[in-house]
Hints:
The chain is an alpha+beta fold. It has six domains: 207 residues, Hypothetical protein af1432; 145 residues, 2-Layer Sandwich (Beta Polymerase, domain 2); 90 residues, Ubiquitin-like (UB roll) (Roll); 64 residues, no CATH class; 58 residues, no CATH class; 75 residues, 2-Layer Sandwich (Alpha-Beta Plaits). Helix content is 48%, strand content 15%. A five-stranded mixed beta sheet has the order 1-2-5-4-3.
Amino acid sequence: MDYASTLLGLLPGQRRTPGLKGLIQAVEAYLPADQVERIRSAAEFGAAAHKGQRRKSGEPYIAHPVAAAEILAELRVDPDTIVAAILHDVMEDTAIDKAEIAAQFGESVAEIVDGVTKLDQIKFKSREEAQAESFRKMILAMVRDLRVILVKLADRLHNMRTIDAMQPARRRAIARETLEIYAPIAERLGLYNLKLELEDLGFRAAYPQRYRVLDRTLKRARGNQKEFLGKIAEQIRAALKKSEIPGTVEAREKHLYSIYKKMSRKRSALADIVDVYGLRVIVDKADTCYRALGAVHSVYKPMPGRFKDYIAIPRINGYQSLHTTLFGPNGVPIEVQIRTDDMHRVAESGIAAHWKYKAGEGSPSNEQSRAREWLSNLITMQESGSSEEFLESVKVDLFPDKVYVFTPKGEILRLPRGATVVDFAYSVHTDVGNRCVAAKVDRRLTPLRTVLRNGQTVEIVTAKGAMPNPSWVNFVVTAKARAAIRQYLKSLRRSEAIDLGQRLLNQALSESSHTLDKVDDRVMAAALGELGMKDRDELYEKIGLGERLAPLVARRLLPVASSDDEIIAAPSPLAVAGTEGLLVSYARCCYPIPDDPIMAFLSAGRGIVIHRETCANVEDYRRHPENWLSVTWQAAPNRLFSSELRISVANRMGVLAAVAAAIASQETNIDHVTVEERDAQTSILVFDLKVRDRLHLAKIVRVIRRMPDVSGVVRTIAHRTRE
């Protein structure tokens, strides 16, 4: 018998549910009594559902959702969000379903819980895929109700507070996910306090040694810095008082992870990071912020180029403030932020500041609308690829390093640093992006791949029948633009893809004097089965979309031999190991032959192309290692290979015949000869030969070099030519 559980069951509900007392105290400060009682009922319902379950730390599982709910209660969110936080793991970890939650606590609570619930019931190929799909579901639920992400962030924050109970490898994985996904989302939604704590906890778990060293160093310097800032704060308070500006001045300390990121980005030591500490001025109205700025600048001179007005141009998450950096005592830079009480509340709590419980109010704030606008863009992203692609797109879109550009009407658009004209077009509207053909930046025509800078005015020129260029996906940086382009390319009419694929396959077959009409039905059926295709149209479609190479498919459809055993249109036998089943050709820029060190590359038009390692064209391919294949020569290939020699000879009668006779004496076929006259005394003879291997070629070269009229012999190799 479990005596501890029995005894626990006899205790009053509040004592039976760890953390409930603190949660109730937090909600009693702003919610009416009936809602407090509803939250208490939800906690008891959750405790009963999770009965017998424990966390890795050993405490009852219900302690976790209650703690997550208390985090949200500190933000003073609505009661449905608090209840959903308490129940957020019930559907995942217990037998209770969505319908039961809806019956007990309402449809709104059930929808939030469902949005947060992971997809553990679905079988995925990998843990990464499961994680990505779960994230996709959460994001889409966020679009319907932003409170989903509030619950998820509170859930993640409490998990990070108690992460020490996890195994080191798992701890680091969760910490990296927190730094890459959840902290940036919190920042994007303006949840500043949550973002800071998530970052510092993630930093400590992901890089414990770096965290300890940095924390220890800052603690040693903290006393002197605070005394230093205190004196500056007093001077600024005196300046505000002299100007009759009501306001408070407080010191602020940059968080560890922010310092670490800045050190990593600038490759600097801690001593070189000047804004570890700063000051914040809080005033009553927006116009007072600018008056306070003048008072601050009267005490210490501002640093040129270090002033930012986020009041006139707010950040995408609604953040507003004036930022200025001063030349402090002894030239030490001091960053000062100036904002109103309302701006400070939004800066600290972000979107949650506008979700504080107020009975009867249902109109969304500007900040909520901004957040929904960003989230609605994610709908387009998620339609364009796999869950993993979607997750990567969101990661790219989360980082806040922005440029601000103007539409012709003077509206401000915020784009990631490095954004191009095409990114701008898609940020205006997907249709504008799809139909853009040209652009004017500051009234001057400019290429579509032009990277935009702060303050530029951009005008997009569109055309009715225009369509996205597939090459755009190579230079756009916003997730919305990339997803829209990919989606358009995937939505090309199937008939067009089929038609294109059929033409490409016919062309590939024609190179071997064959056509689709001549392909036997049994051969086609066998090839379709081998390739996993249902019918010819599917095969043509895959070729048309670039998912299958026409030359490789053609190889499977070609007859190998006729009835009289004569080889018909079949590619030459493979002499390179590692290319089995693939069409192989030998580059004519460097003429590889057996015993040459070689490299193989996948070419969309030619299958596998073999180059010598010393070929100049290999340098170009090194930029695309995904196209490399590791190959070697077969032990003794039973065939002849093309090679080209350039022979410098004296310009005399009969020398061509003499050289040709010398080559023929080595059991070598001459396929082609070209004569290039260099001057009156010297000519260049270019011989296209058939040789067995390097040894055979070396014998030929030695024979030629002994001739009195020959001044030089070299093998042909590319000089920056392209296949």
